[in-house]
Amino acid sequence: MKIAVTDTMGSEHKFQQYISWLEHAEPSVETVRLSYMFDNTNGIQACDGLLLTGGHDVDPRLYGGEPSHPKIKDTNRRRDDFEFHVLEQALTAGIPVLGICRGLQLANVYFGGTLFADLEEAGFRLHNSKTDAAEFLHEVNVEKETTAFRCIKNLNGSINSSHHQGADRIGDGLRVSARSADGVVEALERTDGNSFFLLVQWHPERMKESHSPFTRGVLEAFLTATQKSKYEINSLYKKENQ
After folding, report:
1. Could you write out the DSSP letters of every residue in 32-73?
2. How many structural domains compose the chain?
3. Active site residue ranges
4. For the whole prediction, is pTM greater than 0.90?
C-alpha cells in the first residue's frame, strides 16, 4: 500500500518520525512525500491514503483571523494552498485521511471552520506549545459511537500535547469526537462519507508510550482502512479494464 505524507517543511527529524511510525507498524508500506516545493500535488493520485502532518500555523486570512496577531508565526500560505488541493483530491477519491495536529487545524479550516489564534490567550491552560520540551501529557475524553472511539476503544486516557492553536468553530460536515478536560477539541471526524477520516490534535507518531491506544489504535485503524482502500481501488481498476 502507498500513503501520501505531507512535508512538515521545518524539521527533517519530525518528518521522519511520521515515516518511522508508519513503517514500524507496516514495514512494506510505501510513502510519497508531498510538498509544494516538489510541485507534486498529483502524487496523491497514486496513493491509497493521506497523512496530513503537523508544522506551521495556518494562515489566519484563510479563516477570517488576524494576520498581525503576535502569537501567530511561521505561516506558509503556499503550503496551506497546496495541502487544501491535496485534501480535496483525497476526498474526491474517497481514500482514507488522517490529520495530525496542524493537519486537524488545516482540515477544519478547509471545511469552513476557524481556529483559536492562541489557546492560552483564549483561556485554556492544559496545553503545551514548547515542542522542544519533554513530553507533556494531559487527559482526553472520547465520545462513544465515533470513529475515534472505534479506533481507540477507550473513553478516556492520556495524550501528548504540543500546540498553541486549536479548532474554534467547527467546519461544516465535521463533528467533535474527543476533547481535553478543559474543552479543547482533540479529535474531529466527518459526519458523512464512507471512507475513513480522522483528525487528531495530539501527536501519536511521537508518543513515548508506543502501545497506548491513542497511538497504536489510531495507526492500526488508518492502515487497515488504507489497505482496504487499495484493494477496492485495484478491484475497480480491474473491472474497468476487463
Report:
1. EEE-TTTT-GGGGGG-SEEEE---SPPPGGGTT--TT-TT--
2. 1
3. 101, 203, 205
4. yes
